[in-house]
């Protein structure tokens, strides 16, 4: 089976690494000349809206998926005329727009922070008066890793902020006094079968994920699965979806979904019976889903800007290095380390060792 992937970054690369043992081949459509997934398959270098190359991709593969939601929904809709594409264009359309996404949560009875659609500075002024401060203004599309957003803490922060974010459609969200950030990696097959990985505790810095730790018997696991199931069913979703939540007052408020394999699920490569990458491919290909059970205690630490010396990383016991083969650049995710240990105490000790390398 040959699978087309829109996007050739590290997520596409890890999909190919997971699919190759299953006898799958890959083709990546990505405009970047140095797309890091290109070493693992055919690279069609073209913009995501290039219909000639999209037709070429459709003619060469058995099905198509995508590795990130910056892909236009129109691209997926176009491809779906010629080849099966999972997840669907409708799922992508909603997930890539924060207003559509939050409105869907509200319609499905899933709690969220207070939010408002912002189309102008006047809208922002009115929304702040209603929702209050602090609040976060985010572009409705394309923002990630802390980009395309600004925290408003005091009245002086409001003036000119709409223009500062590009005078594009935005969403204002009330600030949530959360006690933790967690994410749930879910997978849904073509026949509707669903499986869930354990909730993951996430730590961010300046909007970028730094550390994910898989939980054991989290008290909010069932609630997270319920909320995620509502979305998966509503969208008739196929593939892996990540659902990010805030822990608030003993419950959960929805932050956002990602219609793809996700950074906070990277630990599953070594830490689960079947990784999120393999399960995504199983789902879109119509194959049986694999077990999402944990193997030991696991965590993932991102390498931002630079990967520490390889020999130092792999010298840490229980540590597994994933180097993306990307040029080092400030603020860029260039690799990660997965830890898998026998117990939580050992895991915490090994996390400290990797963090020390990152700080060097």
Automatic annotation (TrEMBL):
Subunit structure, as described in the record: Homodimer.
Residues engaged in binding ATP: 98, 138, 143-149, 173-176, 181, 204, 255-256
Function according to Swiss-Prot or TrEMBL: Catalyzes the ATP-dependent conversion of 5-aminoimidazole ribonucleotide (AIR) and HCO(3)(-) to N5-carboxyaminoimidazole ribonucleotide (N5-CAIR).
Keywords of this entry: ATP-binding, Ligase, Nucleotide-binding, Purine biosynthesis
Reactions that this protein is recorded to catalyse: 5-amino-1-(5-phospho-beta-D-ribosyl)imidazole + hydrogencarbonate + ATP = 5-carboxyamino-1-(5-phospho-D-ribosyl)imidazole + ADP + phosphate + 2 H(+)
Tagged with keyword Ribonucleoprotein: no
UniProt protein name: N5-carboxyaminoimidazole ribonucleotide synthase
GO cellular component term, pick one: cytosol
Family matches, as Pfam families: ATP-grasp, PurK_C, RS_preATP-grasp-like
EC nos: 6.3.4.18
Gene Ontology molecular function: any one: metal ion binding
TM helices/strands, residue ranges: none
Protein family membership: Belongs to the PurK/PurT family.
Upper classification of the organism: Bacteria, Pseudomonadati, Pseudomonadota, Gammaproteobacteria, Pseudomonadales
Pathway noted in the entry: Purine metabolism; IMP biosynthesis via de novo pathway; 5-amino-1-(5-phospho-D-ribosyl)imidazole-4-carboxylate from 5-amino-1-(5-phospho-D-ribosyl)imidazole (N5-CAIR route): step 1/2
UniProt keyword Cell inner membrane present: no
GO biological process, one term: 'de novo' IMP biosynthetic process
Occurrences of domain ATP-grasp (ranges): 102-285
């Amino acid at each position: 089976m040959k699978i087309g992937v829109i996007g050739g970054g590290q997520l596409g690369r890890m999909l190919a690494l997971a699919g190759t043992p299953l006898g799958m081949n890959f083709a990546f459509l990505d405009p970047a000349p140095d797309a890091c997934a290109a070493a693992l398959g055919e690279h069609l270098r073209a913009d995501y809206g290039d219909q000639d190359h999209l037709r070429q991709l459709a003619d060469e593969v058995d099905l198509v998926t995508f590795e990130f939601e910056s892909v236009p929904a129109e691209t997926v809709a176009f491809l779906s005329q010629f080849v099966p594409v999972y997840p669907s264009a409708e799922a992508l359309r909603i997930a890539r727009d924060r207003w559509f996404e939050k409105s869907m949560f509200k319609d499905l009875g899933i709690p969220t922070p207070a939010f408002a659609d912002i189309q102008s500075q006047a809208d922002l002024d009115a929304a702040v008066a209603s929702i209050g401060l602090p609040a976060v203004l985010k572009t409705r599309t394309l923002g990630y890793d802390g980009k395309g957003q600004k925290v408003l803490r005091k009245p002086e922060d409001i003036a000119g902020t709409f223009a500062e974010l590009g005078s594009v459609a935005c969403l204002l969200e009330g600030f949530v006094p959360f006690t933790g950030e967690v994410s749930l990696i879910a997978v849904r097959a073509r026949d509707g079968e669903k499986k869930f990985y354990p909730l993951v505790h996430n730590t961010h810095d300046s909007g970028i994920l730094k550390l994910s730790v898989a939980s054991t018997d989290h008290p909010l696991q069932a609630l997270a699965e319920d909320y995620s199931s509502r979305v998966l069913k509503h969208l008739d979703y196929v593939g892996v979806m990540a659902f990010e939540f805030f822990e608030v007052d003993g419950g959960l408020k929805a932050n956002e979904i990602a219609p793809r394999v996700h950074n906070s699920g990277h630990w599953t490569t070594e830490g689960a019976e079947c990784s999120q990458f393999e399960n995504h491919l199983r789902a879109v290909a119509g194959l049986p889903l694999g077990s999402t059970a944990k193997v030991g205690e696991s965590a993932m630490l991102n390498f931002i800007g630079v990967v520490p010396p390889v020999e130092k990383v792999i010298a840490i016991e229980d540590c597994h290095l994933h180097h993306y083969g990307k040029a080092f650049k400030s603020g860029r995710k260039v690799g990660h380390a997965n830890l898998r240990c026998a117990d939580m105490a050992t895991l915490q000790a090994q996390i400290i060792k990797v963090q020390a390398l990152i700080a060097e």
